[in-house]
Design goal:
This protein has 103 residues and is mostly helical. The protein has helices at 2-5, 15-27, 31-38, 42-49, 57-67, 71-89, 91-94. It has one domain (2-94): lambda repressor-like DNA-binding domains (434 Repressor (Amino-terminal Domain)).
Length: 103
């Protein structure tokens, strides 16, 4: 049902977009300060914000603690983003894979 509720042609936001456009600005802190508080390098944070780095479980735990929403939401955002891209990249290749039914 969840699949039918979202528009499959619209790319889900990368979590870095949410961080850079909503979460970090809402804190009033600089990106450098956020990286320091998270215990990650500035480069890692900037790579996430530029969609060059994915949210790992390690980063998700840190973000979940910082923003009080738990790690799951950050991983689910990353997973939705990655899955959307994988479905498009592999669309032709997976057409040849049969869908099996239980006997």
């Amino acid at each position: 049902m969840a699949d039918s509720l979202r528009h499959r042609d619209i790319e889900p936001a990368h979590p870095g977009e949410i961080l850079g456009e909503i979460a970090i600005p809402a804190t009033g802190k600089s990106k450098v300060e956020i990286a320091r508080l998270l215990g990650i390098s500035r480069q890692s944070l900037y790579d996430i914000l530029r969609k060059r780095q994915s949210i790992t479980p390690n980063i998700a735990v840190r973000l979940g603690k910082m923003f009080g929403d738990g790690p799951g939401i950050w991983l689910r955002m990353q997973q939705a983003h990655d899955l959307w891209h994988a479905e498009r990249e592999l669309a032709e290749e997976v057409k040849a894979i049969p869908t099996l039914r239980a006997a």
